[in-house]
Specification:
Layout (H helix, E strand, L loop, with lengths): L2 H14 L2 H14 L14 H11 L4 E5 L5 H8 L5 E5 L3 H11 L5 E4 L2 E2 L4 E8 L12 H6 L5 E10 L1 H4 L10 E5 L5 H6 L2 H4 L4 E7 L14 H10 L2 E11 L6 E10 L1
Helix pairs in contact: 3-4
Length: 263
């Protein structure tokens, strides 16, 4: 980048982040619901960039992507420089169709139509209007009252597998691996079905409820204290936390996305 270009970018950033523009931005956000802020791309700004950098820094060459939805996580880390293999699992049929289209663009990415948990068989999944909220767990009514897109619109019967049953079939455990779990309250069950795999993984990435009474799904047994305590005993260190769901009225954070690395 030339000195003139750098100087121009710094000037633009300074103007856009000035107090006058910042107040205009806040007032516009309050009236329209849209809030935009220009920042220099950095790991503190982009959770996807931060994840890709962590994967590369710790030499992780395989990502097992449980609860892939339409593939936004995997595509994000690949676009930001992750070069290793990705194996994605997604149970919701409509989301899997979109995921399959994304996967075809990347030679190192594979996707399979299945749920992951602590049994091998079939299970009912609650499909939400916004498929990112689909879960085997039942979502709480008070949460759907504030976010209608999270409401369940149908159920699907899907195949479900333990990750330990899939070792050697879809992935191997003899390479540095990140296990990413995004299963909307079903994380504990996924980990129970991956007891052998977790012994060898280099990293874990999953959504964690801050407290049991704040969880947006019913019958949740673990919260952030339980997860961090368990991971510490297993030799994992927390390397990143990112806010996922927060109440629009109160500002209370329901869930964070955590990355834990075994050093």
């Amino acid at each position: 980048m030339s000195p003139n270009t750098t100087c121009l970018m710094n000037l633009v950033r300074k103007v856009l982040n000035s107090k006058v523009v910042d107040r205009f931005r806040r007032n516009l956000a309050l009236s329209t619901g849209i809030y935009c802020k220009v920042k220099k791309l950095a790991p503190t700004v982009s959770e996807e960039l931060r994840t890709a950098k962590l994967l590369n820094h710790f030499g992780i060459t395989q990502v097992i992507d449980v609860g892939a939805n339409t593939g936004q996580f995997a595509e994000g880390i690949i676009d930001f420089g992750y070069k290793g293999k990705v194996i994605s699992f997604e149970p919701v049929s409509s989301a899997f169709q979109s995921l399959s289209k994304r996967v075809n663009k990347y030679p190192q990415w594979e996707a399979y139509h299945a749920a992951i948990g602590n049994i091998d068989g079939q299970v009912d999944i609650n499909v939400s209007e916004d498929t990112q909220f689909s879960s085997i767990k039942n979502i709480k009514e008070d949460f759907t009252e504030t976010l209608s897109a999270a409401r369940t619109i149908r159920k699907e019967v899907v195949d479900i597998h333990r990750l330990d049953s899939l070792i050697g079939k879809y992935f191997e455990i003899d390479q540095p691996t990140l296990l990413k779990i995004d299963t909307q309250g079903f994380e504990k069950e996924v980990m129970e079905g991956a007891a052998e795999l977790i012994k060898s993984v280099k990293g874990l990435k999953l959504e964690i409820p801050l407290a049991k009474n704040l969880e947006i799904y019913n019958e949740i047994e673990w919260d952030i204290v339980d997860y961090i305590s368990m991971f510490a005993k297993m030799g994992f260190t927390c390397m990143s936390l990112d806010t996922i769901n927060a109440d629009k009225t109160t500002g209370i954070v329901y869930e964070v996305d955590g990355i834990f690395i075994r050093q």
